[in-house]
Amino acid sequence: MFRLVLILSIAPILAALAARWWFGLRVLATEGQEICRINPAKWPEIPGHVLPEKATAEVLGKLLHDQALAGWRTEYPAAAASRENSLRFGMAVPPFAAIIAIFTVLIGKTKPIAAIGIFIGSIAVSTLIGLLSLPAELSAITRTAARLRTLGALTPSCEADAVVRCALATAWLRSLPRVLAFLQR
Fold this sequence. Notes:
By secondary structure, the protein is mostly helical. It has helices spanning 2-31, 57-75, 77-106, 112-132, 134-151, 158-173, 178-181; strands at 35-37, 54-56. Helix 5 (134-151) packs antiparallel against helix 6 (158-173).
């Protein structure tokens, strides 16, 4: 039974790692260091952030990501809260499952293969929940980017496209459980 769980859990984990690399790490590596300009006077204020006029696409992408999340929390608080809860689930469940698996092996209730199956299964479930809630966050980023282009904060250029792609990459990077993020450092 646990071997089946282990085998079925590996496929979504590998697919999620590949997607995180393709849509997140690769984009930041290729476009993240491009120097971009924005118009800070036309950019809505982001609480706790200072807007630079010129920075790398990665830095501006993270600012755009934070702006999108702030706007999403005010426009659609239930959807934003659901996304944050799914990210918290992905952060908390795998370590908790690991602790339970270790203790069940130590007291002799399960075999080590079962403990590994429980741990990998919890990572797979957390990964699927994080990926299923990702489209709503990506949609919030694209809506915010379109609004910033309309305001003139993002100029219609390849620089602005790099900033938007880096913001989307940031969302991909935070969508998977931290246990998997350690594998791709």
